[in-house]
Specification:
Number of strands: 7
Strand content: 15-25%
Strand order of the largest sheet: 2-5-1-6-7
Order of helices and strands: EHEHEEHEEHHHEH
Shape: globular
Length: 178
């Protein structure tokens, strides 16, 4: 049985990449940064001037990811989640952070005022969390706070603990099926 796939989602600036980098090291999973995949493979339909970002070609991305996801052991990171098939993931982690910290992080990235405002609204209205709740079973969705280095360490440990439990459950299912 292959390792499970995990989705890490949340508003830009909440700490998804930092978490994925740490998880890749701790779990030995392959980090699939959707933004990087999209950029490397030109999976872009157009550029959205209003939101100052490229518009993703979801079909081409999903076709590209399908064989990778079948292998298991992937951490997929993206700020949106609803278009990924639920069957790909055993767990969905939504990374959140306080708005004051998020604002500072987005300013440090030199985002424009409109982009900062849009991302702040996404976090305030918990758009990524609601999107995950609409797309996936509630029992596989976990909300993580990522304000501090201590939070990051706790989050890595929480995902590691989840994986150990998943492996136990997978082993007991295998024994019952034998």
């Amino acid at each position: 049985m292959p390792l499970p796939n995990i989705l890490v989602t949340g508003t830009p600036g909440t700490g998804k990449s930092e978490l994925c980098r740490a998880l890749e090291t701790k779990l030995g999973f392959k980090w699939q940064s959707v933004s990087k995949i999209v950029s490397d493979n030109s999976f872009v339909e157009e550029y959205d001037e209003e939101f100052e970002c490229p518009v993703l070609d979801e079909d081409r991305l999903l076709d590209f990811l399908e064989p990778i996801m079948q292998q298991g052991g992937n951490i997929v990171e993206y700020h949106s989640s609803e278009f990924f098939p639920e069957r790909w993931f055993a767990a969905v982690y939504v990374v959140r952070c306080s708005t004051s910290i998020l604002y500072e992080r987005l300013q440090a990235r030199e985002y424009g005022d409109r982009k900062i405002k849009s991302n702040m609204e996404c976090e305030i209205f918990q758009i990524p969390l609601d999107e995950a709740r609409d797309a996936y079973r509630k029992e596989i969705i976990f909300e993580l706070t990522s304000d501090t280095q201590e939070d990051l360490e706790k989050n890595v440990q929480q995902v590691y603990d989840w994986l150990m439990e998943w492996k136990k459950g997978d082993a007991s299912e295998s024994e019952t099926n034998d």
